[in-house]
Amino acid sequence: MNYEMQKMPEAGDTVVVGMSGGVDSTLTALMLLQRGCKVIGATMSLWDGSLPEIPAGKKMRESCFGPGEEENIEECRKFCKEHGMEYYVIDVKETYKKEILEYFKSEYRSGRTPNPCIRCNMLIKFGALLAGIEKLNIKYDYFCTGHYAKVVRPEQGVFGSDVKPCMISTAMDVSKDQTYFLYRVSSSTLEKVRFPLATMKKSDVIALAKEAGLEAANREESQDFIGEEYFDLIFSDKPSVPGDIIDLDGHVLGQHRGIEHYTVGQRRGLGVAVNYPVYVHSIDAKNNVVVLAPNEALNSNGLIADDFVWPGNVEPKDGFDAMVKIRLASKPAAAYIERYIPEEGDKTEYRGQPWKITFAEPQRAVAPGQSAVLYVDGVIAGGGVIFKTV
Predict the structure, then answer these.
(1) Inter-residue contact 308 to 317 (CB < 8 Å)
(2) CA of residue 240 relative to chain centroid, distance
(3) If phi over 0 gives left and psi between -120 and 50 gives alpha, with beta otherwise, what is residue 197?
(4) Which of 115, 109, 169 is nearest to 379 (CA)?
(5) Model confidence at 109: pLDDT above 70
């Protein structure tokens, strides 16, 4: 299928840019200004100070949720003032706490591996932030961010329909492609969303930012949802429940410190002594055990996923081939996608229609709670949350 990349904002358009203080969003705002757009900066305020302070003198990595937010906001405010831009800070703390932080803790405590960035993009960055802007009665033609991705429209209807929705396509800089994080942003929202860095390389972005004298060009890049220093602290609202670490045959190898501290595929920090390399194979939340196994035992031929989203809300009628990413860092793997019909007696409460994904070659460390994102010709054709392996 052929796709047409959607046009970028033009001179005279009013554009809201979601700004974080980083080089990508800052350069995005500058480029749009240079293009003749009326640019309005907006930053979402997440940090509520609810976690204990990190000891003085300990350097923290840049992250989305953390005490460095105030400094980031000041940098954004300074940039906007210097360039004659309106600037707004949108308070989304309560929504963020409920939809992201509580979800994050609940998933880990259920033995699953959550992806808070995917949920944040859908509900906060392209949800609560935009709702806050509209509540201020700010009218705009486009909403832009510094993500590396493209917004495209198919020339034919998706999955045999007449619907030609906005869809997300991979960026030119494959090494920085962020489409995996964006797959749950709805087609209706994408109608007014654009990613001006879609056809740029990260190295070019840095070079242009330095040439323009942007302070953001020298900042450490934000990679994490939360700083590593805060990971244990975020679970301090409840005591961890220790339990057994076992092998595939049920032999006890040691004790874990709470299942929320483990994820499928993990090798470090297991605290067991065996004479061969072992990894987290699975987590049994019901029995509070962590199961370890050799690396080769982590391969899966397929998975069942539910809670699917589809472009234009058009669900496929038939099975189809796609390339599938099971985590951000994984390479897309060839697979066949088909509706999953639960066996008689299966009382599992799936979120919507579950789908079965069968890989052409086994995939390692498929983690329930992560997302399986489907690509056809480099364009996201849908995606869901991994429920279990098969």
Answers:
(1) no
(2) 26
(3) alpha
(4) 169
(5) yes
CA–CA separation, 225 and 243 (whole Å): 27
Model confidence at 58, pLDDT cuts 50, 70, 90, reads: low
CA distances from 252 to 290, 308, 359, 360 (A): 10, 37, 32, 34
Q: Mind giving me the DSSP string for 4-47?
A: EEPPPP-TT-EEEEE--SSHHHHHHHHHHHHTT-EEEEEEEE--
At residue 53, what is the residue type? E
Q: What is the pTM of this model?
A: 0.94
Distance of CA 229 to the CA centre of its chain: 20
Q: Among 290, 305, 289, which Cα is nearest to 366's?
A: 305
The whole-number pLDDT of residue 219 equals 77
- What is the DSSP secondary-structure string of 136-202? TT---SEEE---S-EEEEESS-GGGSS----EEE--S-GGG--HHHHTTS-HHHHTTEE-TTTT--H
pLDDT at position 218 is 84
What pLDDT digit, counting tens, does each position of 61-70 carry?
Answer: 667 887 788 9
Q: What is the pLDDT of residues 226-278, one digit of tens each?
A: 777 777 788 888 999 999 999 999 999 999 999 999 999 999 999 998 999 99
Contact 181, 328 (CB under 8 A): yes
At CB < 8 A and 24+ separation, what contacts does 289-295 make? 289/243, 289/244, 289/245, 289/246, 289/256, 290/243, 290/244, 290/245, 290/246, 290/256, 290/259, 290/262, 291/245, 291/246, 291/247, 291/248, 292/245, 292/246, 292/247, 292/253, 293/247, 293/248, 295/364
Residue with more model confidence, 58 or 320? 320
Return the number of other C-beta atoms located less than 10 Å from residue 221's C-beta: 12
Cα dihedral across residues 128, 134, 138, 141: positive or negative? positive
What's the pLDDT at 232? 79
Q: From CA 338, how far away is CA 351, in angstroms rounded?
A: 16
Place 94 in a pLDDT band, splitting at 50, 70 and 90.
very high
Rounded Cα distance between 301 and 389, Å, is 8
Q: Which tops the pLDDT comparison, 116 or 343?
A: 116
Between 23-34 and 202-211, two packed helices, what is the crossing angle to 10 degrees? 70
